[in-house]
Amino acid sequence: MNDQHATLHDLRERMASFVRERDWEQFHSPKNLSMSIAIEAAELMEHFQWLTTEQSEHLDPAALQEIGEELADIVLYSLSLANHLQIDLAETVLAKMAKNERKYPKEQVRGKAHKYTYYRKQEGEK
Amino acid sequence: MNDQHATLHDLRERMASFVRERDWEQFHSPKNLSMSIAIEAAELMEHFQWLTTEQSEHLDPAALQEIGEELADIVLYSLSLANHLQIDLAETVLAKMAKNERKYPKEQVRGKAHKYTYYRKQEGEK
Amino acid sequence: MNDQHATLHDLRERMASFVRERDWEQFHSPKNLSMSIAIEAAELMEHFQWLTTEQSEHLDPAALQEIGEELADIVLYSLSLANHLQIDLAETVLAKMAKNERKYPKEQVRGKAHKYTYYRKQEGEK
Amino acid sequence: MNDQHATLHDLRERMASFVRERDWEQFHSPKNLSMSIAIEAAELMEHFQWLTTEQSEHLDPAALQEIGEELADIVLYSLSLANHLQIDLAETVLAKMAKNERKYPKEQVRGKAHKYTYYRKQEGEK
Question: What is the pLDDT of residues D35-69, one digit of tens each?
Fold first, then answer.
């Protein structure tokens, strides 16, 4: 099952079974899951810790494989948190993207990486 | 579009457009995206920083809304990294889950939260 | 040399030599060091990931030893960042503490863990 | 009081008073403090999120001021954790540095940023 066919629901169900079969819901409190996502994010970062941003664009297949697994762990804990809190992930993600589109109007931010507060300040200065 | 219907591909395409329209691919290097995921994970943790694990189970609707948005940011950057590295996220997540199923056999780990190295050690001691 | 006698300067010098002798200044850019601190912080968190806040108060000697080492890594990278940016750490830390004392007046926050924005809001509502 | 004169003990005592006066020991469990360090580390990273490693070497005074404050927060929570666990920080840091010196012999690692497992593997291949 690949990205063309897998729905968020499919993946959530798989993760929910994995956790339930191990009786791990008790450990998957929101607090613990937020730590788990941060821990996996750090393991992902470890692959890039001493690389320049430029070097991080040129990864060998072995590194890419490991990086994919770290990313998977982040997604798995994110799915478990969505399960635990009964959040619809697609709706929430699309709503957040719509909010980001308003916060960062494309004409204004094109090719720039400032934070949105920077743009609001400029707006205010006009 | 909700979790029942949204495929990973749908969300990836939306995120790819968002990034492309802002000419932000140049900032979305793997190194920078790994930092971004970790930063958003920390913003998620901030909601639980001073709560007990027990308290983190009882969130009011306002907190839940904010937590959903932080989780969305983590997912958005994860989608962007998958786009950037051309990783099929569903395949990678399912493969990692299969690996975790072997690493943590359900009969052995039920209701326990030790790391898998602990189980291998026990195995070795038999 | 223990906490009674070691100055920040002593520790900074030791770390500076360690880095210089390995010709590692080139890797210790502020960006990389900020990632390194975050990575070590995550390794510290890993020890507490599945514990309740209460359980984290009762650590066995072996865990305590490992936790001390993770904390040391955080401090080491912090010293290196201070070296790299030529920040006086004691002055900066004491200035930040003075700022925190104003932000969180002790009469007002005693026994409470809300963020300071919460206190400002209350103040505004009076 | 600057790095030339401030001992770790001086700073620890100041932080201990700050926490005690607010009756915040109850929140400063090892688990919560590990999250707090990680959260502050992420706030530090935020300053470098979209910069190249090279750009992160050239910070303007305003950025440097803010970065110093984030670093201070990391140190403050580290001091509080040392207080809470009664760890001598200078001893632990110096012991860890001695361990790192053995793990990364300077003749072998000069100018290279590989992880120490890489060096052990090479050693084994001889």
Answer: 999 999 999 999 999 999 999 999 999 999 999 99
CB count within 10 Å of CB C20 equals: 12
Residue B121 C-alpha, separation from nearest chain D C-alpha, in angstroms? 21
C residues 56-115 lying closer than 8 A (beta carbon) to D: 56-57, 59, 64, 67-69, 71-76, 78, 81-82, 85, 87-97, 99-101, 104, 106, 109-111, 113
Nearest chain B residue (CA) to D43: B39
CA–CA separation, D10 and C120 (whole Å): 31
The string of pLDDT tens digits covering residues C42-76 is: 999 999 999 999 999 999 999 999 999 999 999 99
- Hey, which of A113-117, C114-118, D26-30 has the most confident mean pLDDT? D26-30
Residue ranges and CATH numbers for the domains of chain D are 1-87 (1.10.287.1080), 89-126 (no CATH)
Residue C122's pLDDT band (boundaries 50, 70, 90)? low
Q: For chains B and D, what is the number of CB pairs under 8 angstroms?
A: 31
Contact across the interface for B54 and C50, Cβ inside 8 Å:
no
Closest C-alpha among C97, C75, C95, C73 to residue C10: C75
Chain-centre distance for alpha carbon B2: 18
